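ugh finaly. both done.
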Amino acid sequence: MNIATKRWLPHTISAAALLVLLYPLAWLLATSLKPADEVMTSLDLWPSRLEWSNYTTALDGVSGVTVTHLLGNTLLIAGGAVLGNVLSCSLAAYAFARLRFRMSKVMFAFMVATLMLPHHVVLIPQYIIFNRLGLVDSYWPLILPKFLATEAFFVFLIVQFMRGLPRELEESARIDGCGPFRSYWSITLPLARPALITTAIFTFIWTWNDFFTQMIYLFAPEKYTITLALSSFVDQSSTSAYGPMFAMSVISVLPIVLFFFVFQRYLVQGMATSGLKG
């Protein structure tokens, strides 16, 4: 194998793999422009004619709720979840990584062990609690737990990052009279920016794509998110609405794609420096 072949072969393989990975996205975009009679019957990627009315119908939303309103609801929940996870998980991580207190190692091990606990196990007890508090059919059950450091994965990720920070900075701040909270806010938090951005990215994407939890707690159509609206779209219009449903799917995917591309370099940096690589 000559030098030129060795140089271009990895790029060729990567390009082929990229095409395979991007095919579902291309199929989704093409199907959103297909006429209703071709969505489930035609195997061709490109439609025989472009049906732009699918997007017009999709923008009208479901049950009288427009797509703009649905996107606003989803953004509100995702934004609240990001804020809650970044604040609460970084506070919990700082306590495990920097502070010394009784049974800290046992509590950290117990926290990590909750990673193996399926979400569906705690769903019923959480629903009972929120139902008794009168918070069902509101956004509080989807946002409030994020402010209580319930995401063990993000706590672990930030702990691993904070443990790699030099302690001399906090010791110098302690000599100058800084307490634990001031050291956390002024020193550790700015230095932990890559891990915090990684937490924000994953939280935003997972919350935006969440369906099951939102379906459990939200009942009123005006409080629906874009994911709940997709399922309702087919239920109310049956098979004839597949074209608009795929059009709404494209609209719902766009914010995630844009968000990922904007913060991609922070995601790679955070994962590479958070101790998860070994």
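ok and the 2nd:
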Amino acid sequence: MNVRRCAAALAAAAVIGAATPALAATPSPTPSVAIPAGLYGTADPTYDGVWRQSLALLAQDTAGVVPADRAVAWLTGQQCADGAFAAFRADPAKPCDAKLMVDTNSTAAAVQALTALGGHAATTGKAVTWLKSVQNADGGWGYNPGGASDANSTAVVTGALVAAGERPEQVVKGGKSPYDALLTFALPCTGDGTGAFAYQPDKQGKLTANADATAAAVLGALGQPLNASAGKATAKASGCAAPATPEQAARNGARYLGAALAKDHHLVSALPGAENQPDYGNTADAVVALAAAGHADEATAAVRWLEADAPQWAAQSGPAAYAQLVLAAHATGTDPRAFGSTDLVRLLNATGPAPQKAATPKPEASDTSDDDGSSTALWVTVGAVVLVVLVAAALFLARARRRRQP
């Protein structure tokens, strides 16, 4: 996902009643709340605390890093009694009430992170139950419960269901599954944006291609979580086909992303009245989507572009941005510790509590004892004594024979 859950975007969403795809934002230098000790990043967490924490933990897990206990405890402590997560709870000891804006994206991201870490079945089980309870009649989810379904929210919830061991096609409301909902956002093979996904239809029901929504929806349609690995290599699609199934819609979406990256190897974002700017987060998400769809080779040039230009963006944007780059590296088999000239893992770890030390390597299967070397020394000593005794006995017998000879 793009780092679209920034303060400006969500504040606007709260006013107009619908979340819109937002662009990566530079963290506020003056947070309006105190930064909790276990949280990653120093920016105001009001609108993205759970999201960025979840991505950070998920990225650490893919890189083989064991997160700090207090970082995980901070995330689990953000859950409400009904299983939902809000973007941020400044006082977790205070029960959630109707004024707290819980959301599907934070909840789904937390499920994916905690499931990957393991040992949090009770927490993730409550969260999945809540997500099912707020599913829309079209099979999808909006950012806030009861809001109109959108491609991004439906996709991240689908990934959470898969991560938690659910079968999305069996999670239905009104006879519709998440896959049915995602297909409603898939553009046809004619007109502008061929094969892409829209974030939502407009008031007239028109679908407009959205690269951020497409990257998310490709993962969702494939039934893949945010930490997707590369899918089986697939030949580049020669053309678009009617998106009658989730698999075909995902192929179309991957084709759209591949074409969008082909020229400059990155995607762009634009605000009304502003000049187009490189969209680092969306490019990283597109790389993950392409790799998951079996087109990691088409993402190679984009990965090289990210290696050269994205670390500076991540340094400004915070842990979720580093996490996106780590996940892009993971999906394409790139070493996140040597991402160009950047060690993404080290930089991500530095944004929060120091992770646990690496576990002590387990002994080889053939060495099941807890011998510290003393038993080996003992047997060597015993062997030497036995050898001395045998030699002495042989000499004694030889002398005895010589004395008996005439």
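summary for the 2nd one i guess: DSSP finds 14 helices and four strands in the chain.
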